[in-house]
Amino acid sequence: MTSGGTTDAAVTSSAGELADEARAKVNLTLRVVGRRADGYHDLESVVAFADCADRLTLLPGEELRLATTGPLAAACGEVADNLVLKAARLLAERVPRLKTGTFTLNKVLPVAAGIGGGSADAAAALRLLARANDLAIDDKRLTEVAKLTGADVPVCVPSQPCVMTGVGESLLPLKLPKIPCVLVNPRIAVATKDVFTALGLRSGELLVGIADVIQAMVWPEAGASLEEWVEAFAASSNDLEEPAMRIEPVIGNVIAALNATNGAWLARMSGSGATCFAIYENTAEAGRAAEKIRSDHPTWWVHAGVLS
Could you say which of 20, 42, 121, 152 is catalytic? Predict the structure, then answer.
């Protein structure tokens, strides 16, 4: 097993050991269309991925196991409940003689944070198992397992910019420019189910009008400037931001801190929170903003980087 380190995704980290990176997911917009009769919520969300990531390795072996390391390993909870193992077990039920082994997760992303940390880890596990077993990444069994493991897992498998609709299973690729950003989490976990409960939709209830459902948001075409994209994002919203702030008011403080930095074009919560982001014109401005927030709020988790 390995204690982590940094390598590129989808590379062999040592003899026989496979490695991948589980990049943070960021919901640049998130519209809740309504709640289905089965209780699931229909969404429309523009999703991009950050350049901060957990690292997952797989050392092939006879027994399926998971070890956690890294600065946030203690926040992972019970290993038996981890989505990495859930995904592996579900795939083993569908692929005869599936080769598994020991996973080691170097955990650096906050948990229950609205950036798909656990889902990204599960997606990385599926990519590693696909490589170890010579499965195509679009193998229908792998696609089925991704959906069963969690709503955000299907979008995290390709980890590419897209418009995500339905309950997360429909993905339309987008050509986004590089987006300089700062991600901030106040180190407060927010349960997704609590936020949707606070949203308060009844089964079968629509949050938007029928005309809004029929006429989906039109996004800029490939080659559009960063400024054009930010204007489009600003015209939308995150419908979970307000109910999440009722549960954890500190989210409003995070957004205010991001808005107060020089050069912040747009500040918003990602997913169901509590991680928030701000977009900047360039990485230098993002870096300065991150340093300001670290100085003012030393207990917060802060990352300056690029979404793509």
Answer: 152
pLDDT tens sequence across 9-39: 454 456 689 999 999 999 999 999 988 888 8
152 is catalytic: yes
Q: Are the beta carbons of 259 and 278 closer than 8 angstroms?
A: yes
Intrachain domains 11-173 and 179-307 with the same fold:
no
- The Cβ of residue 293 has, within 10 Å, a number of other Cβ atoms equal to 21
Q: 299 vs 26, 148, 187, 188, 264, CA distance in Å?
A: 21, 35, 8, 11, 21
Q: CATH classification of 11-173, choosing from 3.20.20.70, 3.30.230.10, 1.10.1740.10, 2.20.70.10?
A: 3.30.230.10
Judged by phi (left if over 0) then psi (alpha if -120 to 50, else beta), residue 134 lies in: left
Prior bond of 274 cis (ω within 30°) = yes
Domain coordinates in residue numbering, the chain: 11-173, 179-307
Which one is catalytic: 25, 54, 121, 239? 25
Query: What percent of the chain has a predicted confidence (pLDDT) above 90?
Result: 82
* Active-site annotation holds for 25: yes
Classify domain 179-307 at the CATH class level. alpha beta
- Give 291-298 contacts, CB < 8 A, sequence gap 24+: 292/261, 293/182, 293/184, 293/257, 293/258, 293/261, 296/257, 297/184, 297/186, 297/257
